[in-house]
């Protein structure tokens, strides 16, 4: 996200389904990859939108106001919701319609800390990502420098396997595919760690049938999507479901998202 933003772009539809995990065979590591750039746009001086784009409940509070001002901070809020869901297994807010969110956001000042989050550094980072005021919300570059990632406690949590993978990347540094992030153990997620996490998470939280969040757009001229079904609605209409098919079949997409 930091690299994406440094290029002057706004994704505008960051959510769990649009962050894929990829582990090249034999690499021992997992890469997180952002997908679905159908709503992406270049940031400009005003960032005013003529239409609304995003997926509730990942949409930032400022997207429920008029005029619609969409900056890179909407991506940070959406990442915060994604991060929150990974930990708490629910959304900070889960309402039925865009109008419901609009009413609540008009009065709500912040997201309350859930009892399950005990780590103060973690909540400090999350609360900065979920800050309602976009001018006060943390940037992607600032988030990477947050103590949750850089404190002595965070460094102590780096596993021997992460260090080994970083050292191996150092030996391959002449390879043009090796980036600075590949050589930094704080950016490395090993395959064994993510596999262990997924297994323990499934045991603690058995999969349940859940309705997927709604993608909301009041644009009248649709973007081009790699999709099987595309529904667009105006601001006065009840929202409806948009099923994206961005890689393989729908079942494959859901499997990728569940990982």
UniProtKB/TrEMBL annotation:
**Annotated Protein kinase domain residues:** 1-149
List GO terms (cellular component aspect): autophagosome; cytosol; membrane; phagophore assembly site
From which domain of life does this come?
Eukaryota
Query: Pfam families given for it?
Result: Pkinase
Q: Which GO terms describe its molecular function?
A: ATP binding; protein serine/threonine kinase activity
Tell me one GO biological process term: autophagosome assembly
SMART domains listed in its UniProt record: S_TKc
**Kinase as a keyword?**
yes
Q: Does the keyword Cytoplasm apply?
A: no
UniProt KW keywords: ATP-binding, Kinase, Nucleotide-binding, Transferase
InterPro entries in UniProt: Atg1-like (IPR045269), Kinase-like_dom_sf (IPR011009), Prot_kinase_dom (IPR000719), Ser/Thr_kinase_AS (IPR008271)
* UniProt-recorded name of the protein: Protein kinase domain-containing protein
In its UniProt entry, the species of origin is given as Streblomastix strix
* UniProt lineage: Eukaryota, Metamonada, Preaxostyla, Oxymonadida, Streblomastigidae
């Amino acid at each position: 996200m930091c690299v994406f933003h440094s290029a002057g772009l706004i994704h505008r539809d960051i959510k769990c389904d649009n962050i894929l995990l990829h582990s090249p065979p034999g690499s021992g590591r997992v890469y997180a990859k952002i997908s679905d750039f159908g709503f992406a746009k270049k940031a400009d001086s005003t960032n005013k939108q003529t239409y609304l784009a995003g997926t509730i409940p990942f949409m930032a509070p400022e997207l429920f106001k008029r005029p619609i001002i969409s900056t890179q901070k909407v991506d940070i809020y959406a990442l915060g919701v994604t991060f929150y869901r990974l930990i708490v297994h629910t959304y900070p807010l889960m309402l039925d319609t865009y109008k419901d969110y609009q009413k609540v956001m008009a009065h709500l000042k912040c997201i309350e800390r859930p009892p399950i989050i005990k780590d103060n550094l973690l909540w400090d980072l999350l609360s900065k990502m979920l800050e309602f005021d976009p001018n006060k919300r943390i940037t992607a570059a600032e988030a990477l420098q947050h103590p949750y990632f850089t404190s002595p406690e965070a460094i102590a949590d780096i596993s021997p396997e992460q260090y080994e993978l970083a050292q191996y990347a150092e030996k391959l540094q002449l390879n043009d595919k090796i980036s600075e992030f590949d050589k930094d153990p704080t950016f490395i997620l090993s395959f064994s760690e993510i596999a262990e996490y997924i297994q323990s998470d499934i045991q603690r939280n058995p999969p349940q049938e859940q309705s997927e969040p709604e993608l909301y757009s009041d644009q009248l001229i649709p973007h081009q999507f790699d999709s099987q079904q595309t529904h667009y609605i105006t601001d006065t209409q009840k929202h409806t479901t948009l099923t994206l098919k961005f890689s393989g079949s729908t079942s494959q997409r859901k499997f990728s998202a569940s990982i």
